[in-house]
From TrEMBL:
Record localization: Cytoplasm
PROSITE patterns assigned to the protein according to its UniProt record, in alphabetical order: RRNA_A_DIMETH, SAM_RNA_A_N6_MT
NCBIfam families from the UniProt entry: ksgA
Function: Specifically dimethylates two adjacent adenosines (A1518 and A1519) in the loop of a conserved hairpin near the 3'-end of 16S rRNA in the 30S particle. May play a critical role in biogenesis of 30S subunits.
One GO cellular component term: cytosol
One Pfam family this sequence matches: RrnaAD
EC number of this enzyme: 2.1.1.182
InterPro entries tied to this protein: KsgA/Erm, rRNA_Ade_diMease-like_C, rRNA_Ade_Mease_Trfase_CS, rRNA_Ade_methylase_Trfase_N, rRNA_adenine_dimethylase, SAM-dependent_MTases_sf
Domain of life: Bacteria
SMART domains per record: rADc (SM00650)
Species, as recorded: Candidatus Copromonas faecavium
Record keywords: Cytoplasm, Methyltransferase, RNA-binding, rRNA processing, S-adenosyl-L-methionine, Transferase
Protein name: Ribosomal RNA small subunit methyltransferase A
Amino acid sequence: MEKKLGNPKQTIETIQKHGFMFQKKFGQNFLIDPHVLEKIINAAGVTKEDCVLEIGPGIGTLTQYLAETAGRVVAVEIDRNLIPILEETLEGLDNVTVINADIMKTDIRQIAETYHGGKPLKVVANLPYYITTPIVMGLLEGDAPVDTITVMVQKEVAERMMVGPGSKDYGALSLAVQYYAEPEIVANVPPNCFIPRPNVGSAVIRLTRHAEPPVQVKHPKLMFQLIRASFNQRRKTLQNSLGNAPELSFSKEQISYALEKLGLPAAVRGEALTLPQFAALSDLLEESGDF
Ligand code: SAM
């Protein structure tokens, strides 16, 4: 391996040596703080039994740390200008495979098959912030085996994943994350831990996939349609937001009947409902027959 990255000096030297230009469109903010890197590694709980999927290795900083603790690391990087740099910074680390691809177009199930005999992967990454939500939702909803996701995200997004009703941050992302996984913020990370410095604070969040979802619902797809429709128009009452949603075909009467059965006020908004209440609403509306 070339020199250990994860500090400002080595990072700047590596970037300058290769004449690398940061691409804003790829959300490139490279980690330069060894304490933060160690926190991510510890929180991820990676062992030599694990195969880690790293999304966006950049110049290979976190990858070097992961290579020490994991059995295997598969790192998917979109920016082809980083590939020659990675070849150098990861040289000699024979448990690391770098794939030059867009993670949104990558078959993660296939990665698990090829590199881990189909067993669950651990995802560890300092995510590009412009696509955090689609990446995390794709991992949770997709068919690839993934048991934990330990990622650096915008602080505000980490908080949205954690909160329940009563917070302005509560929304479709909170409910979806909590349906699939147990979220825990393991570190808050200030902008000066990155080059270039992002404009926002960051946090490391660990999502541990539930063995069983915390609520039983007959049609999770319908429940998520209801959740999305409720928060698309979050200031409206559920009767209006669900009644007007083009992708749903429930009448206002059906919705008000279901709310009454749940003991909820007729003018309740979606932002007041817990995950179990959305599950119960979904089952009641499903029974009413128009699904
Ligand atoms: N892991 C490095 C670190 O911590 O220093 C870099 C993290 S940087 C926040 C995000 C990385 O994701 C960049 O290297 C960027 O090029 C890469 N990236 C952005 N969009 C991507 C995509 N769609 N698929 C794969 N990698 C992507």
